[in-house]
Amino acid sequence: MAYDETTPNPVDLHVGLRVRARRKSLGLSQDALAKSIGLTFQQVQKYERGANRISASMLWAIGKALDVPVVYFFSGYAEGDAQVFGEPSAEQSIGSFLTSAEGQELAASFPRIRGPRQRRKILELVKAMAEDAE
Q1: Residue 128 C-alpha from the chain's centroid
Q2: What is the Cα–Cα distance from 50 to 17, expressed in whole angstroms?
Protein backbone atom coordinates (compact mmCIF):
# COMPACT_ATOMS: atom_id res chain seq x y z
CA MET A 1 0.00 0.00 0.00
CA ALA A 2 1.36 3.46 -0.88
CA TYR A 3 1.48 6.23 1.69
CA ASP A 4 1.61 9.93 0.99
CA GLU A 5 4.38 12.05 2.46
CA THR A 6 2.03 14.03 4.72
CA THR A 7 1.40 11.15 7.13
CA PRO A 8 3.96 8.98 8.92
CA ASN A 9 4.53 5.51 7.55
CA PRO A 10 2.91 2.84 9.79
CA VAL A 11 6.29 1.13 10.27
CA ASP A 12 7.81 4.40 11.52
CA LEU A 13 4.84 4.85 13.88
CA HIS A 14 5.24 1.33 15.22
CA VAL A 15 9.00 1.66 15.74
CA GLY A 16 8.49 5.04 17.43
CA LEU A 17 5.88 3.58 19.79
CA ARG A 18 8.26 0.75 20.68
CA VAL A 19 11.08 3.24 21.38
CA ARG A 20 8.75 5.25 23.60
CA ALA A 21 7.39 2.21 25.43
CA ARG A 22 10.86 0.86 26.20
CA ARG A 23 12.19 4.27 27.25
CA LYS A 24 9.26 4.79 29.61
CA SER A 25 9.50 1.26 31.02
CA LEU A 26 13.11 2.06 31.97
CA GLY A 27 12.01 5.35 33.53
CA LEU A 28 14.13 7.43 31.12
CA SER A 29 13.16 10.89 29.98
CA GLN A 30 13.42 11.86 26.32
CA ASP A 31 16.28 14.14 27.32
CA ALA A 32 18.20 11.32 29.03
CA LEU A 33 17.83 9.05 26.00
CA ALA A 34 18.78 11.88 23.66
CA LYS A 35 21.95 12.66 25.61
CA SER A 36 22.97 9.00 25.66
CA ILE A 37 22.81 8.82 21.85
CA GLY A 38 24.04 12.32 21.05
CA LEU A 39 20.76 13.92 19.95
CA THR A 40 18.35 16.57 21.20
CA PHE A 41 15.19 15.59 23.02
CA GLN A 42 13.23 17.17 20.15
CA GLN A 43 14.73 14.63 17.74
CA VAL A 44 13.81 11.76 20.07
CA GLN A 45 10.30 13.25 20.24
CA LYS A 46 10.07 13.21 16.44
CA TYR A 47 11.31 9.61 16.31
CA GLU A 48 8.74 8.51 18.87
CA ARG A 49 5.89 10.17 16.97
CA GLY A 50 7.05 8.62 13.70
CA ALA A 51 7.49 12.11 12.24
CA ASN A 52 11.14 11.36 11.41
CA ARG A 53 12.48 8.02 10.27
CA ILE A 54 15.21 6.41 12.32
CA SER A 55 18.28 5.36 10.35
CA ALA A 56 19.68 1.86 10.84
CA SER A 57 22.75 3.15 12.69
CA MET A 58 20.62 5.33 14.98
CA LEU A 59 18.23 2.46 15.65
CA TRP A 60 21.26 0.39 16.62
CA ALA A 61 22.40 3.15 19.03
CA ILE A 62 18.91 3.49 20.50
CA GLY A 63 18.75 -0.28 20.99
CA LYS A 64 22.07 -0.23 22.83
CA ALA A 65 20.95 2.71 25.00
CA LEU A 66 17.67 0.95 25.84
CA ASP A 67 19.34 -2.48 26.21
CA VAL A 68 17.27 -4.24 23.55
CA PRO A 69 18.16 -5.78 20.17
CA VAL A 70 17.08 -3.91 17.03
CA VAL A 71 14.47 -6.58 16.28
CA TYR A 72 12.62 -5.48 19.45
CA PHE A 73 11.48 -2.31 17.67
CA PHE A 74 9.73 -4.32 14.93
CA SER A 75 8.23 -6.93 17.23
CA GLY A 76 4.47 -7.16 16.92
CA TYR A 77 4.25 -5.33 13.63
CA ALA A 78 2.24 -6.90 10.84
CA GLU A 79 1.41 -5.08 7.63
CA GLY A 80 -2.28 -5.70 8.25
CA ASP A 81 -2.01 -3.67 11.47
CA ALA A 82 -1.52 -0.43 9.53
CA GLN A 83 -4.12 2.27 9.92
CA VAL A 84 -7.19 1.85 7.78
CA PHE A 85 -9.19 4.92 6.78
CA GLY A 86 -7.44 7.00 9.41
CA GLU A 87 -8.54 4.84 12.34
CA PRO A 88 -5.77 3.55 14.59
CA SER A 89 -5.35 -0.21 14.78
CA ALA A 90 -5.95 -1.99 18.06
CA GLU A 91 -2.19 -2.40 18.53
CA GLN A 92 -1.57 1.31 18.00
CA SER A 93 -4.34 2.20 20.46
CA ILE A 94 -2.97 -0.18 23.08
CA GLY A 95 0.56 1.07 22.45
CA SER A 96 -0.53 4.68 22.88
CA PHE A 97 -2.40 3.80 26.05
CA LEU A 98 0.50 1.88 27.58
CA THR A 99 3.01 4.60 26.82
CA SER A 100 0.94 7.27 28.59
CA ALA A 101 1.60 7.94 32.27
CA GLU A 102 -2.04 7.20 33.12
CA GLY A 103 -2.02 4.00 31.10
CA GLN A 104 1.07 2.70 32.85
CA GLU A 105 -0.37 3.58 36.25
CA LEU A 106 -3.68 1.91 35.45
CA ALA A 107 -1.98 -1.17 33.98
CA ALA A 108 0.14 -1.51 37.13
CA SER A 109 -2.78 -0.99 39.53
CA PHE A 110 -5.58 -2.96 37.86
CA PRO A 111 -4.13 -6.47 38.46
CA ARG A 112 -3.91 -5.71 42.19
CA ILE A 113 -7.72 -5.55 42.34
CA ARG A 114 -8.47 -9.07 43.51
CA GLY A 115 -12.22 -9.31 43.06
CA PRO A 116 -13.46 -10.16 39.56
CA ARG A 117 -16.73 -8.31 40.25
CA GLN A 118 -14.82 -5.16 41.16
CA ARG A 119 -12.73 -5.43 38.00
CA ARG A 120 -15.88 -5.91 35.91
CA LYS A 121 -17.50 -2.83 37.50
CA ILE A 122 -14.40 -0.73 36.77
CA LEU A 123 -14.46 -1.92 33.16
CA GLU A 124 -18.16 -1.04 32.88
CA LEU A 125 -17.46 2.41 34.35
CA VAL A 126 -14.66 3.08 31.87
CA LYS A 127 -16.84 1.92 28.94
CA ALA A 128 -19.71 4.15 30.08
CA MET A 129 -17.39 7.14 30.42
CA ALA A 130 -15.96 6.47 26.94
CA GLU A 131 -19.47 6.31 25.44
CA ASP A 132 -20.38 9.59 27.14
CA ALA A 133 -17.27 11.21 25.68
CA GLU A 134 -18.33 10.22 22.16
Answers
A1: 25
A2: 8
In a domain, 107, yes or no: no
Distance of CA 54 to the CA centre of its chain: 15
- Residue 25's alpha-carbon distances to 32, 69, 76, 104, in angstroms, are 13, 16, 17, 9
Query: Which CATH number do you get for residue 16?
Result: 1.10.260.40
What angle, 0 to 180 degrees and rounded to 10, lies between the N-to-C axes of helices 56-66 and 10-25?
A: 20
**What is the average per-residue pLDDT within 85-111?**
68
**Which amino acid is it at 67?**
D
* Secondary structure (3-state) at 84: strand
In a domain, 130, yes or no: no
pLDDT, tens only, 53-69: 999 999 999 999 999 99
74 within some domain: yes
- Please give the model's pTM, rounded to 2 decimal places: 0.64
